[in-house]
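Subject: two folds for Thursday's group meeting

Dear M.,

Sorry for the delay on this. The cluster queue was jammed most of the week, so I only got both jobs back this morning. I'm pasting them in the order they finished. Each block is the input sequence followed by the predicted structure tokens. Could you check whether the formatting survives your parser before we put anything on slides? The first protein is the one we discussed after the seminar.
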Amino acid sequence: MFPAPPLTAGRGRLRTLLAAASAVSLSALLVTVAPAPDVPGAARAEDRTLTVATWNMCGVRRWGCAGTGSEAAKGRAVRRLADAGAGVLLLQEACVRSVESVREALGRSWNLSFLPYAWHDANGRALTVRCDGAGSGPAGLAILSSHPLSAVREVSSPQPVVGLRRGILCATVAAHGVRVCNAHLSTPGSDRAGPDREYRDDQLRALVAAVPARNTVFGGDLNLRPPTAGGSGVRLWPFAAYRTHRECDQTSATGRSGRATHESGHKLDYLFTGLPRTRCTVHDTGVSDHRALLIRVDVRAGATTG
């Protein structure tokens, strides 16, 4: 899938742009909302760490999320993650109205980039996937950041021929020079044209190939259990995932497990980094079938190595 050029919107224009995108059925659209011009973008001297959170908001009610809480409650949960110290939030199954409202509530220094999901039918037509509530807008991936974002782009990755295309969205937190990527991988059987086709291995390789070896935090809802869980999923993991990078909950060089992040009791959500980890927490928001995963990294280490 080839991404469309990014669009940059001023404050208050996000809904207008997304409505236009839905009308013309773009297969991929990046919308970035930048801070007001008078908001300084340079990092303060005391900004020595960065906390990144990933959370599947379960915001599309028809996807088994009807009993997980209202859109407003999910928005409040995102704000609580930010209040707990998360300076970057990687969100999946997010409704654009909800995350835009969160950005506005968090303040003028916060930035939002959003990539809608797309449904491709058997005739090759692409439609933007919309949330269920009236006015909720498209569903998709979001990156919320307390610092300006630069070099925002969708990473091209193999996607189902017929069915739901999720994707990978990356950006650079300019104040720290840290590349962040938010990924939502396909589930088994996602391709209506070939239910037996496996996409997660190639999608993971595309994700790992898109990030630098060190100054990065990447992950999201990978719809995949850790290598230690056994089964056929073991072969899907690329070599670099746990070696070149370390996962938030990885306790040793040979560790390949972590705490459960899904109501099924499995770990499906991940954050990998090449920077020193100083903290890893799992937080139950109470309004999703996924728990949030938060990693704190030492950004000074990346600065000293260039």
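Second protein, same layout:
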Amino acid sequence: MTARPDADIQPVLRAALTLVAADGLKGLSLRPLADQLGSTVSALSHRYGLKDELVAAVIDAAREADTAFLNGWLSRVRALQPLTGSLLADLADAILDDMTSPRHAARTLFFFELVQGAPTRPEIVASLSAWRDRRLAFWRAAAETIGPPELGDALNGYSADEAAHGLAIGDVAAYRWLRRLTLRRLCDGLVAAPGATDLRAFVMLHAALGEMMTGPDGYEPQPLTDWQARIARDISALIITQSADAVTHRAIAARAGVASSTLAYHFPRQEDLLMAGLEDIIARLHGRVYRDPDKIDLIEEDLSSVEIARATFAVALAATRTPRLRACAADMRRRRGENYLFILNRQIPGESPLDLLSSQALSIAGIGQIVLDGVTAGGDIDRSAIEALLAAALAAR
């Protein structure tokens, strides 16, 4: 059945946001919702419809609230016309701050959890795609007076990856400054202006953010037995290809070909499974990031660019609930462009005009685009905006 016309979805939306913020998409089911609302499953179903209909209604309500939020910002952007690239960058920075502020963070996290979980939840794709497309329309409208035309698409991808990290580490001053510098380079030209000092500031803040890894709240990998480490590879693969929400004892036992009882002995809780998978992702990404760039061989990589995008996105979302992962999220965020710059320079004939700040901006936008395009199963990754910005930068040298 569908929701009754007089059904007020707002209480359900608030309950859903609370549950997802605490426990991911697995909390978004009828029983937890009914408990959160002080109701029963039968009463909830009678008033709002069956589970898929109810979830679609919740997503639609969240999209409407997000649309009102974005429309408010679009009116401010238009009131400040004519824009410069630097002003658009500062506005984008303020919008990302607002998206991840206490007032809007739960809705922003809900959107990203849906994006991450879409590969295993085909029933949410239609409603989520409408929300995703609305965000793209906003960024296109915000950037429409600043060329090139692909900038709005790039900002949409950038905002997806960046806001997910902002939810986890937005209170870190070095992170906020890095974001500001990267946005200015994205909006005001990828090639540094003569005499520009932004790269010097970026390098200094880049190092400062890395200090989180060795500070008092730094990251220490948890020891695993050889058997656990082998299973962790299966767990990380499931997180990357589907979502953290897909990690259950039954799913991992079937994937790894082990008895459920044996798996439960080594990983008693679902949280133990999830953390082992995240640990494996972190170790594999660090093994890629920290190696000498000239040793990168894309043909031999065990993680594709799509898998890397989904993996780092999963770590960022996990860090919103697991404080000890915050340093990892910060470190992965700051190292976005390092190996990518080497790859770009290897592909560009002659002297490259790009630097670490340029590659950081392109990398963040590209990763966000990959994650957003993954909402539609089997959909191609649209790299046209990144390729157009890169082509314009090379043409200007």
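Two things I noticed about the second structure. The chain has one domain: 80-397. The radius of gyration is 21 Å.

Cheers,
T.
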